[in-house]
Specification:
There is one protein chain. The C terminus is likely disordered. The chain contains 13 helices and 12 strands. The strands form 2 sheets. Strands 1, 2, 3, 4, 5 and 6 form a 6-stranded mixed β-sheet that branches. It has a 6-stranded parallel β-sheet with strand order 9-8-7-10-11-12, sandwiched between helices. It is α/β, with parallel strands linked by helices and about 375 residues long. It binds nicotinamide-adenine-dinucleotide. Nicotinamide-adenine-dinucleotide binds next to helix 5 and helix 6.
């Protein structure tokens, strides 16, 4: 039954990781390594069933393949999930046991943080394997990627404004930002620095208050965000908020934000296109975090990181051009751009796995 699913999703490898003493039940999914080793975060979540965990890791790892490919990175897509409650089930043994499984893949999969995981957990993983990114700066890591994701989102936003309105004057437009967490708070700060009108909402009232007091944003209710008369909707919390219930309420002209999986279903992408709303594909817009951790492979450098983030502007420009050229919605154009790159570069790289892993090993050895 798993192979039937894999035949549809195209995954290369799925590894079930079990250690009874450590209480580890994890799955690592490697979707595609044509462009390079599969890099993707580790999520810890109390999945109700093993099937839920499998579905999640397959969906997320495939997403990483597309994100890396469209962003011009020499990386493939992978992801790990641990079945467990991050508030109760964490231990040194758990993460070290997971690290040993990562190590056994010898660089085909490089792990990082995701939901439910923090830098301290990653330090246990680092004790067992060098194939870890997103660790603390003292270990040669790049720290919290969120500010870079926000900065990258600004680059995507400029490309979207330019395509839709013919200028990139961020301060001229108004924004409805849903979710002001790690990425969202930095994003609204950057918007306000440009003088933009910014509406915010969050389930966390303290965050809303901070955005109002510190940055001069205007607070709106949780559900009211979809009715705000703003130029840009910026989902920065959960996925699936562009759906058949919310779309008819939109007065927005552009959708551009950091959240993953913004479209509830693909036909929502068709629907926003029909309504003349420009959707900036999420995985191209929010690639700043992935770009940032990817630089740990060669030895991290903040100047290189900022330069790399700016490529998000050009990537979005290419996606919009493909969408116009081929007469397809932007979400399909992003997929097409990613698939074309995997196909083209794959033809010249197939005999070897790519040099990224080798350089990664060199960097980690350098750490002593
Ligand atoms: P976070 O948990 O720090 O922030 C999310 C915020 O959304 C929280 O403040 C939370 O209270 C709020 N929220 C949750 N449900 C809400 C709702 N229904 N309405 C309004 N607010 C709600 O997460 P983050 O790291 O800022 O990530 C935000 C989004 O961006 C996620 O979808 C994440 O997958 C995506 N993303 C993050 C990064 C990164 O570098 N952190 C990179 C790529 C993509």
């Amino acid at each position: 039954m798993v192979f039937d699913i894999l035949a549809k999703t195209g995954h290369e490898q799925v590894v079930y990781c079990h250690n009874r003493d450590a209480g580890l039940k994890a799955i690592i999914a490697i979707h595609n390594t044509v462009l390079g080793p599969a890099l993707g975060g580790l999520r810890m979540w109390p999945y109700k069933t093993e099937q839920d965990a499998l579905n999640d890791v397959l969906r997320l790892s495939r997403g990483m393949t597309y994100k890396a490919a469209v962003s011009g990175l020499n990386l493939g897509g992978g992801k790990g999930v641990i079945i467990g409650d991050p508030t109760k089930d964490k231990s040194e043994a758990l993460f070290r046991a997971f690290g040993r499984f990562v190590n056994s893949l010898n660089g085909r999969y490089i792990t990082a943080e995701d939901v439910g995981i923090d830098v301290n957990d990653m330090e246990w993983v680092l004790k067992e394997t060098e194939f870890v990114t997103g660790v603390h700066q003292v270990h040669g890591g790049s720290g919290d990627p969120s500010p870079f994701t926000a900065y990258g989102t600004m680059q995507g936003l400029m490309a979207a404004l330019s395509f839709k309105f013919g200028d990139e004057d961020i301060g001229k437009y108004s924004y409805a930002v849903q979710g002001i967490g790690h990425v969202g708070m930095e994003f609204v700060k950057l918007l306000r620095e440009q003088g933009a009108k910014v509406f915010v909402t969050d389930i966390n009232k303290d965050s809303v208050q901070r955005a109002v007091d510190e940055f001069g944003c205007e607070a709106v209710g949780l559900d009211d965000i979809y009715d705000v008369d703003a130029d840009v909707y910026s989902p920065s919390a959960l996925g699936g908020t562009v759906n058949h219930n919310t779309i008819p309420r939109f007065k927005f002209k552009v959708i551009c934000g950091a959240a993953n999986n913004q479209l509830a279903t693909e036909d929502c992408g068709d629907e926003v296109e029909r309504r003349g709303i420009l959707y900036a594909p999420d995985y191209a817009v929010n690639a700043g975090g992935l770009m940032n951790v990817s630089l740990e492979i060669d030895g991290y450098n903040i100047e290189r990181a900022r330069r790399m983030m700016r490529t998000i502007y050009h990537n979005l420009g290419k996606i919009f051009t493909i969408s116009q050229r081929d007469g397809i919605p932007t979400y399909r154009a992003a997929d097409r751009m990613a698939e074309e790159r995997i196909d083209t570069i794959g033809k010249i790289r197939l005999p070897q796995m790519g040099n990224t892993g080798t350089r990664f090993l060199g960097r980690m050895r350098g750490l002593g």
